[in-house]
């Protein structure tokens, strides 16, 4: 998130945002311009979207990308890199989703602090959310925070393993597929 541009209520933000040429996230009355992404970010997001789209085809859930909004209460609207919803209301909406079961953020140096803290804290308020995934394309780290039977999020670190498991959508994805198209990691 960058510096705040406007002080708005949620309704005003949604009207204003839909008229903007660029995207802005919303948090407690303020709109924040989205920063551009690097090629590796787009590659990882696209690879994950493609794997999820193929796996979910014909089922009750749909996968979406960063061009669509996820709302958390009346306090926040974010553009996750990839998210999955199975909720009937979300499957009928055109712009604002509220019931994601899986949210993925691809990290960068400029965004990882906010994605690990503020966004994770907000996303945990979504009752349907089962997994929050953080992927760092530079270090090839994959962290899956999964809600347990007590409602707490536990870390499942898939860094360095052959595949990651997304239990929320009953899917295993090879990490070679997630990082396909990126240069090999340096030896050592």
How would you summarize what this structure contains?
The protein is an alpha+beta fold.
What is the topological layout?
Elements: E1 4-7, H1 10-18, E2 24-27, E3 30-33, H2 39-56, E4 62-65, E5 69-72, E6 76-78, E7 82-85, H3 88-92, E8 96-97, E9 100-106, H4 112-116, H5 118-123, E10 131-136, E11 141-147, E12 153-157, E13 163-166, E14 171-174, H6 175-178
Parallel strand pairs: 5-8, 9-10
Antiparallel strand pairs: 1-3, 2-3, 2-6, 4-7, 5-6, 7-9, 10-11, 11-12, 13-14
InterPro entries: Nuclease_put_TT1808, Restrct_endonuc-II-like, Uma2
Domain Putative restriction endonuclease: 12-162
Protein name: Putative restriction endonuclease domain-containing protein
Describe what this molecule looks like in 3D:
The chain has 188 residues and is an alpha+beta fold. It has two domains: 1-34, no CATH class; 38-178, tt1808, chain A, CATH 3.90.1570.10. The protein contains six helices and 14 strands. Strand 13 and strand 14 (171-174) form a beta hairpin. The longest helix has 18 residues, at 39-56. The chain is globular, with a radius of gyration of 16 Å. It starts with a strand and ends in a 10-residue tail after the last helix. The relative contact order is 0.14. The model has no long low-confidence stretch (mean pLDDT 92). This is Putative restriction endonuclease domain-containing protein. Residues 12-162 form the Putative restriction endonuclease domain. It holds the Pfam family Uma2.
